[in-house]
Amino acid sequence: MGLIAQLALFSEETDRPEGLQYTAEFISPAEERELIAHVSALPLQPFQFGAHQGKRRVASFGFRYDYTLRRLQQADPIPGWLEAVIGKVETHGGPSTRIAQVLCTEYEVGVGIGWHRDKPQFGRIFGLSLGASCKFRFRRPAGEKWQRYTLAAAPRSLYMMSGASRQIWEHSIPAVEAKRYSITFRTMTDRKS
Ligand SMILES: O=C(O)CCC(=O)C(=O)O
Ligand SMILES: [Fe+2]
């Protein structure tokens, strides 16, 4: 590979995936504490995908993706304590942003999430980080190699995945070093969102 090609590849590797947005301090420390109290009080269940069980613990509202049936199922209705933050996310997402699904997740120290793209039934993905930061990693094939990008997602920050960052790039989180909670807000693709 020539020098120019290497430099081009290097600059691509440091570029943020198209459609990925990051907002630091999306909520206040007081709002963060309140949300952590609610999420940690939920009857969180080990993430279930088919016969496998993930180490992270989750609770879904609105809809949940059933990995055995391979389709969306109705889940518990979205609880009232999530309304204010959902409103804030919808305002942030702009007109016609309707959050239909919420996933609350707990990552104990040493727990992460493997490479994946979220299910195609979902539209845009918003993620609020609580309690601790994580490395939010992205990759997509680039010839024989992977093009990579890492977002440092700080507590109280919100990321939004749309466009290529949502449809083409995969994401994962390596084992966290301190207990992290997240709240993932998803729109549906069959709506204009
Ligand atoms: O914890 C997060 O911020 C992301 C979790 C995730 O990627 C997912 O549940 O699909
Ligand atoms: Fe995801």
UniProtKB/TrEMBL annotation:
Residue span, Fe2OG dioxygenase domain: 98-189
Q: Which UniProt keywords apply?
A: Dioxygenase, Oxidoreductase
User: Which PROSITE patterns does the protein's record reference?
Assistant: FE2OG_OXY
Organism's domain of life?
A: Bacteria
User: Do you know which InterPro entries this protein is assigned to?
Assistant: AlkB-like, AlkB-like_sf, ALKBH4, Oxoglu/Fe-dep_dioxygenase_dom
Task: Name a biological process GO annotation.
Answer: demethylation
GO MF, one annotated term: demethylase activity
According to its UniProt entry, this protein's organism is Bradyrhizobium archetypum
| Protein name per its UniProtKB record | Alpha-ketoglutarate-dependent dioxygenase AlkB
Keyword Membrane applies: no
The family database entries (Pfam families) matched by this protein are listed as: 2OG-FeII_Oxy_2
